[in-house]
Structure formats: structure tokens, C-alpha cells
Amino acid sequence: MYSKIKILSVLIFQFICTVLIQAQSSEFPIYKHHNTYLSLFNTTLDSNFEKYDVLKYKINLSINPDSREISGNVDFQFEVLENNFSILMLNLNGLQVDSIKQESNWLNYNRQQNELYITLGQPLQSGSLDSISIFYHGVPIKGMYFRNNKFNNKVIYTHNEPYDAQYWFPCKDDPSDKALLDVWITVPQNLKVVSNGILTETTPAGQGKLKYYWKESYPISTYLISMAASNYDIISNPFNWNLIQFPVEYYIYPEEVSRGNAAISNTIEMLDFFSNYIGSYPFLLEKYAMVEVPFQEAAAMENQTITTMDEPVIDNESVIAHELVHQWWGDALTPSSFNDIWLNEGFATYFDALFIEHKFGEDVFKARMISSSSQVSSDGSVDYAIYNPPMQFLFGSAVYHKGAWVLHMLRNELGKDVFKTIIRNYYNNFIYKNVSTNDFIDICENVSGRSLHKYFDQWVFSPGIPNLFASWTQKNNNAIIRIDQMQNETIYELNLDLKLIGLTRDTTFSITIFSQNEEYVIPFSDQISQLILDPENKVLNINNGPVYLIPNRTELIQLFPNPFNSELNIFYRVKKLQNIRIELWDILGKKIKTLQNEKKQIGTHKLTWKVENLASGTYICVLKSESNIDKRKVVLIK
After folding, report:
1. Homologous superfamily of domain range 555-636
2. Cis peptide before 162 (omega within 30 of 0)
3. What pLDDT digit, counting tens, does each position of 246-300 carry?
4. Given this model, what pLDDT does residue 546 score?
5. Same fold across 12-38+338-459 and 555-636
6. Whole-number mean pLDDT of the chain?
7. Fewer CB within 10 Å, N- or C-terminus of the chain?
8. How many alpha carbons fall within 13 Å on the CB side of residue 375?
9. Are the C-beta atoms of 38 and 352 separated by less than 8 Å?
10. Residue 274 has what DSSP assignment?
11. What's the pLDDT at 550?
12. 528-579 pLDDT, tens per residue?
């Protein structure tokens, strides 16, 4: 999914047309999700869910665009997984149940918040196949939306991720249970309906209405079930793959057909790249389509075979690539739970970048990844692991951008060919199934022949990213380099490139960091002018590079953020064991507060000060040691 909040509509072509320095500092659309609904649903799954498996949904709805009411029924086919199964629990939120039927029997039921408990006619045994029909009606409070587009025409569309399918049809709203799908939608005859899979038939339904029958023959999770209806024009071009031809379509407002034609051309180019890199498009016997809607919940959403696109981004190349590759990562391979959401969003973010590398070259690809790294910490989500993030950061920037960097660093570490083999094996082994992070780790280890649990423990299952501070001195034709890890989270093991720049020559060498404080002695006879950590930006980290020679004194190194609001991080270097006093003064020479007064060992240190009852303004941070006093200005803005 491509989020709407803070999205910047910067096209890849604009990315190219700037000089590389500008491209490296450019931002691109940020993937942050509209989180207002997240507190409304308790994601703890009832144990009843584990007792049966959904086989198929048959959704039959009539939609009244004027009253916004829906009515109809869902036939729900399932297999029982344990003996003496008598209560079927489904999710349904906000709609009125009229009746429930099992064959010719009317069933009793009761409701508790978003849960519908149905008492079956008799207990069923493990392996039994059965079905029920639920008749219902009402006005969806979310999940299905009725809006006018920018041309003042009616548009009806759905958006389910993560748990909003239950607001417009009764279902087992759990990504781990994929099922087949038939959808019948009846609407006024001036509207065209698009849904998952293929259009099987369109029939008159009386009173100026049409009934559309869409059939999805590949397994699908509830959060990927979708429909949209409006006065669409339909653009269609064929895509050929291994003697199979399927349509690439755009359901688009009639006023914007020219934009849709350009988008279709780009989409076909992307389909070819992703199919060659990953494996065949997973829904070859159906279609790939996009549909334009006045989206307020996101910028785009990768519903299976039918991506929903917000009006401003219908021809945005980066958004198109991100959502298209979700057909592989998310739709064909679907996380067992939203704990593993990075397998969707991190993969889609990185494969969007890989398409940039394919189309525009290495320099633009590197610029994209640098820009991506700058977004990792943009919303605070990096303070949590990208595995099982808290609900408010389920679609946080770290899930997207740190997730992409997990793959990028893995590719750098293992090599492009090994990485591509991993991707293809992962796809082929789990197509149409549910996956977990551990499934991906197992594939990575089997293909590479290496133990990678430490890698994933620190990058996926732990919060934060490395914060590296380096300094150097030169003695007897040796460079003596010290690297300290300053983050509060995990201590990382890293393979890191360092570049020494001398007066007459440069050299790049690799080191492995194992601990929080390490020192390296590197033969280097030329006079050193500069040291650069990670010169090719291969590792996601914060560092104080380029690193210049640190004078032989105790001093403040960095205060950030500056200006600051509620918290100030103070980094300083100590050259020998001694007492270090750090104070805050105002610009009139009055001491405000002593922040620290204690002995400190040789090395780099970090002090975090949380502001309390202090007015906005300019202040002086003062470090006092046995040998000297060092001062830095800092600005507080509240």
C-alpha cells in the first residue's frame, strides 16, 4: 500500500532530470498510512478461528449509491478442522443481520461487538465441508466508501487493509486464511463495476440496474478483496508472457484517458521486469488492472489483480511500480499475520528501487536508496522493530524504508546473483501461500549457505539503527581508528567499508564491527586528510562522517537535534579518565542546570537530556573537564 499522508508527487523522470547531487537530496513519496482507524479493532483473534478453514466467499450485494445502503447475502463455504464443531465465529461490524441459513435450516446467532457467533444445526466433525448463507443490510461506516470525484461523478470503492473488510461483508477477517471468491454486484446501469479476478458476465437486473459477476480463482485474503464502481472508461492493453496473454487494464475517469494510456505503457514495462526478476506474474489467467478513485484512506492499495489509485497519482511511476510488485509480495505471498507487514511493504519499496536501477542505472538507484535512508526515522517508527510494530506504526516509515534497506544490505552482503536466487526460490516455494519472516530467513540461509539469524535479529527483530561515531589519529605510518556505537538499542555486528583519503592517495578497506567500542590499526604512510565511513552507503546507519582528525582534547562533538524541542542528545569525546561536568547556561551568563557531573572513561559518550519547564530560546551547552572548557550554542523551540 502506498500511503497518502505526506505523499510528495515527485516523478522518476524529474528524479532523472536533476543533477545527481540534487537527485541525492530529493525526496520521493513517503509511505505512511492513515492510522485513525487502528484503535477501533482488537486484533486478538478468537480461538474459534483456528477451528475451521474458509474455502470460498460468494458475495452477492445490491448497492444504492444515493442512500449508501447495501443489501444482500454472503455464502460462506468452510472446512471443519476439529471434532464436535458447533459454533462458527465470523467478523461483522456495524451492519444488520437479517437471517442466517444452513441448507434449509434457519440458524440462531448472537453478536458481541465485531464478532458474529452462529450456532450450527448440529455439531460437525473434523474434515466436514459445509456452508452457510448470511443475509444482511445496512450503511457501511467504513470499508466501503461513497464519494464524488473531482468531476462531481459518483464513485463507490472499498478499502480493507488491515481489518476493514468486516465493515461491508461478514468474513473471517484474518490474512492467514485465503479463500476463493465470487462477487456479484448490482448497481445502476450507468456505473461500471470492477473487482478481483475476471469479469464472467454482466446481466440486466431490472429497474435500470446491471449485475456484474466477478470471479477470483486464486486464493485471496480478506484485506485484498475489492470492488469499485463509477462511470469509468476502460483502457486495455495485452501483456504477453511465455505464450500466455492477459489484459493490463485501467478503469479511469473518462476525462483522464490520456493519463491512463501513459500509465498502462509504464505498467507493461514493469510487468516485464518483475516477471523476469522474480517469476511469472502470479495471476496470469486473470488480469492486472488499476482503478481510479477519490481515495482518502491511502494513496494506493494493491488489491489482488485490481489496484486502487488515488486521483493525483494515477500515472505516478513510483506508485505504480510499488503497487504492481505487491501482486507478488503481499498478494501471491501473503503474511500469516500483520506482524510480518515488512514482507509486504519493505519488499515493495525495494523492488520499486530495483526497477529504477533497471531503467535508469546505478547512480539513480543509489540516489533513491540514500533518499530512502533519510526517511527511515521520519515519524518515530524506527524506535520499534519492523517485525510486529505497534498498531500506530503498522504502516510507519521504518516498515517501508528500513524494510527496504534490510533487503538492500542483504544484496550487498551476499552478492546480486545469490540475492536474486533467494528471491526466486522464496517466490516459487510460497506462491499462493502465507509466509512469515522465518520462512524468508530459512530460504536466505539455504541458498547462501550462511547463518543469518544474527543479521535478521539486529535488523528486523530489534528497534533502531546503528549510530556510529568515529575518530582517528596517525602514528608511525599507521592510522589508528576508533569506532563507537552510540545507539541505545542492540549492539550491531557490521561489515563496514572505510575510506582513508591522503594527500597523494586514497584507500578503501573493510572492517567487521563486533562490539560497542573498537579500535583498528591500519598501515597508511601518507598524511591523512580525511576518513569516510561507509563511502558507498552500503549500510543503514547514522554516522559523524566525513570524520576529520579529532584534536587531542576533551570536547563536545555534536548536539542534535539543533534546534530541539523536547529532547537533546549531547555527544562528547573524553581523552583520559577524568571528571566531566556538563551544564546549560542562558545567553546572559546565568547557569540554568547541571546536566552531568561524574567521571568518564576515555572514548565517546552520549548524554540525553529531556527538557522540563524551560522557555524557548538560545542556550549555551558547556563541557568542563580538568584540562579545558568547550561550549556550543543550542536552540530550544517549543
Report:
1. Macroglobulin (MG2) domain (2.60.40.1930)
2. yes
3. 999 999 999 999 999 999 999 999 999 999 999 999 999 999 999 999 999 999 9
4. 77
5. no
6. 91
7. C
8. 30
9. no
10. H
11. 57
12. 888 999 999 999 999 987 776 655 789 998 898 999 998 999 988 888 889 9
Distance CA 132, CA 134 (A): 7
**pLDDT cut 90: percent of the chain above it:** 83
Tell me the three cell numbers of residue 312: 493525483
Give me the pLDDT at residue 33, please.
38
Of 307, 192, 296, the residue nearest 248 (C-alpha):
307
Answer whether the bond into residue 170 is a cis peptide, omega within 30°: no
So what's the pLDDT on residue 592? Answer: 95
Q: How many CB atoms lie within 10 A of CB 343?
A: 26
* CA nearest to 559, candidates 515, 618, 512: 618
Distance CA 160, CA 168 (A): 9
Q: Which amino acid is at 297?
A: E
Please give the pLDDT value at position 625: 95
275: phi then psi, degrees, rounded to nearest 5: -65, -40
Q: Could you report the per-residue pLDDT of 590-605, keeping only the tens digit for each?
A: 999 999 999 987 777 8
CATH homologous superfamily, domain 46-269+283-325: tricorn interacting facor f3 domain (2.60.40.1730)
pLDDT over 80 (residue 404): yes
Contact 490/461 with Cβ under 8 angstroms? no
- pLDDT for 549: 65
Is the CB of residue 14 less than 8 Å from the CB of residue 55? no
C-alpha cell at 267: 505498467
- pLDDT tier, 32 (very low <50, low <70, confident <90, very high otherwise): very low
First to last CA, the chain: 34
Q: What is the CATH number of domain 467-543?
A: 2.60.40
SS3 content of the chain, % helix, strand, coil (to 5): 25, 40, 35
**Which grid cell is 439?**
520462512
CA-to-CA separations, 407 to 5, 323, 456, in angstroms, rounded: 25, 18, 10
**Residue 427 CA neighbour count, 13 Å, CB half:** 24
Radius of gyration of the chain (CA): 29
Return d(Cα 397, Cα 219) in angstroms, integer: 29
Give the number of residues written for the chain: 638
385 membership: H or E segment, kind and range: none
The class (CATH top level) of 12-38+338-459 is mainly alpha
Chain segment 330-357, per-residue pLDDT in tens: 999 999 999 999 999 999 999 999 999 9
> What is the rounded distance in angstroms from the CA atom of residue 38 to the CA atom of residue 147?
22
Q: Is the dihedral of CA 360, 361, 364, 368 positive or negative?
A: positive
Is residue 466 within 8 Å of residue 499, measured between CB atoms?
no
Q: How far apart are CA 335 and CA 323, in angstroms?
A: 16
Using CA atoms, how far apart are residues 473 and 482, in angstroms rounded to an integer? Answer: 9
The domain limits of the chain are 12-38+338-459, 46-269+283-325, 467-543, 555-636
The reported pLDDT for the residue numbered 548 is: 65
The yes-or-no verdict on residue 11 having pLDDT over 60 is no
Q: What is each CA distance from 358 to 348, 506, 595, in whole angstroms?
A: 15, 31, 52
